[in-house]
Amino acid sequence: MPSAMSESAHTSHSTLHNDTHTTFPSSATTATDVPGSPPRKLRVAVVGSGLAGLTVAHLLSSLHAENGQGEQGIEVELFEKAHKLGMDAASLSVTCPCQKCAQESGRGQGDPDHEHVEGRMDVPMRSFFPEYYPNLVRLYRSIGVKFHDADNTLSCFDVTFGSPSASSSPTNRPMDVNIEDPYLSSRSYKVSSDHTITLPDLPPLSLLNPYPFGRRLLGYYRIARDYVKMLAVSKEFMTQGRMMEIGKPASEWGNGRQVSLREFLVSGGYSNDFSAFFVPLFACVCTCSFERMMDYPACVVLEYVARCMPFGRMQFVTSGVQEVTENLSKNIGTIHYNTMVEKIIESKEGEGYPIVLVDSFGVRREYDHVVFATQANQAAATLAGQMSSTKLLPKPFVTSRDKDYDASNFGRMEDHDQTDPVTPRNPVLDTVGDSHPFFQQIKTLAKFPYERTQVVCHTDTSFLPKDPGAWRLLNIAKAVHADILASPHMSDDEPEEEDGILLAGSGSDKEERPGLVNRKHKRSVRATSPSVSSSASSRRNSSSSDRSSIFSSSSYTTASQSHNSAMATHIMNNTASSLGSTTKFLQTTNPIFQPRPDTVISSAWFERAVVNPESMKAVDELNELMDQQAERVLSSSSSFSSSSSSSSPSEDNAQMSDRVWFVGSYAYPGIPLLEGCVVSAVQVMERIMGSERGHALAPSTRASQGSFLKRDEPMRERRRRRDEEISGGRDKDEEDNSASALYFRTSWKDTLEDERIWQEQEKIQAVKLGGSVEVNNKKSSSVGAWTDNVYVEVAWMLLLYLAAIVQWWMVFVIESVGFDGSRWAMA
Question: Which residues form the signal peptide (predicted)?
């Protein structure tokens, strides 16, 4: 059941009214500036309490006036539509099934053989690689959140589906599901104090039938060959700052076209064996269907490969994200729970603040700035005034213990539609014209596509391979008929049915393409939900005009319950020891079939931003838009402070729309992950700081050296110098300086520099405390073994792989004669 700890943690600074919303008196009467007096405190509203919202609210609340010498300079109010902070809203504490706990809670007879557990499950799973998340790591370190690494073990297998059964009861699945043996599984091998290598498992060798062993060994050779080739290519392009040109012939460099991942794999001649491993793995990283995965620009995916592989180690927050939300929210002045923001309007003449926020209860509050930390589509709907059609607040998830739980309908997408009405499915486009104050923002936000995905927590071990010896930390499944490359020549006609599975296209006249997995099954399996079909139809019938095209590109598709997506099942016990080992607690993302209802603990639906060439350009547009807003606010505040002693909004040249900002994983280049939440929050904080010249905002001089803003000072200075260099050479330098171009040129260098600075700060801090100067220099928990020479790095990688292969072969020999070799490998 969900815990209420996050909400209760804020009772000291947030007063709940009828358990529905929080009301506070308007501060407009104190907003005017008296000549000669210090400027009044800024008021900022943050909408949404995911990681992006919590981070920007935490950072803004850490700023002080008078260049950090005075009191807190910004009054922050956070708005959350749910009853608890959004980052932890769907997480839950596991009910202990042991006999003592069952009797104490009145649940009758428990399990006398079950050990006591006090675990908690983060929903969705929050894993990260420090190499790709340097700012997230710095944030966690600054707020005292500890994290640990896990072995990068995985198991990949296929799922076949039979005909739907004649009868379907709440305890039976509607179709016959068969889990095949893994076609690839892996274990980790420690080759030094700093490095762990993951290698695939080999089946035992049978001299009577050596074909399976030989076929598997040949497949692993192809995977290893293509893996090394991809690593060498991606690292070389990254270190040369040409990541956006990867996959294109030299004659096309600089033309702005982005090669898709599909183009890269096909034109690069990557084998079927490699694609069957690589594509489902990254479809799980990006939490999307194969169709959406193949639309990803290759540079976005391969930059992740270059930074995280081969030495990266997956990390997890030791105590769960509940600690993250509690620590980030400690200094936030006011949190409004159960409050949905409906619209943003301009303040009336005579009010002290330029922008007004109206919530779902009709309460008006005035602010200097509003930061949207929601999804792009939700922010667009709010700005368009299209959130007022509903007064309902969503449930964070549905559990089998809810009184309105219906096992016979469990897992259908309609369940989520009924409980989460926050994003309008058919926006009233006529209300958004060129004269709308937020037209440009809405037009840009509408270019970010989303895909819906389901996350189910359960105990149904039929989602794992049949042999428990093949269970791994991450277990990835796909339908055996899946078209992994989502071939573009497949038709979007009405699907036909074959062997109980809905298929799209006839497949009789489809040409074979190199790199296509399962060539004898060339027909693509599509999502079959009504909403997906209607969204595809709406895309075909959409108008080409600017106003009509708003929201059309932000179509909704569904990865869950689609046979053309990867299903990832994470064994939670492997990363949370508090869950014990008696019962395997599982979390499945994008289930392609549903678990038995009696094993379900909870189910949640999410919308995940995905990347395509249009959304990459939208990131650049959004950042340019906010940079221009900051310049206008700065210009307006400067002229206002020097020529007027009144703070009436009518005398402020900055528009009301210039005071609305956007943060989130979608608002930053790269794969939309937690790192984007943190960096976009830092960027908006700096824009607000820089635009409010009259307030002289800065990190508090009394803040500890371990605080995020103190740790960020060297990086902030580096970003300032870079901006000055770009600004100074903008007219004569034709180099692309968009947000995406800068990211691919400099982010990996910034990661190295950030880690170096952190190590130096740790040494200095240790000396000041009189302790040992030793710090944790393990590369596996920082940034890997990077050098400026990609060939040196690849050579070092191959040397370590040779050491791992010695252990790998030893394990193979031991297991081939019937003994357990797991103690030689960290499975």
Answer: none
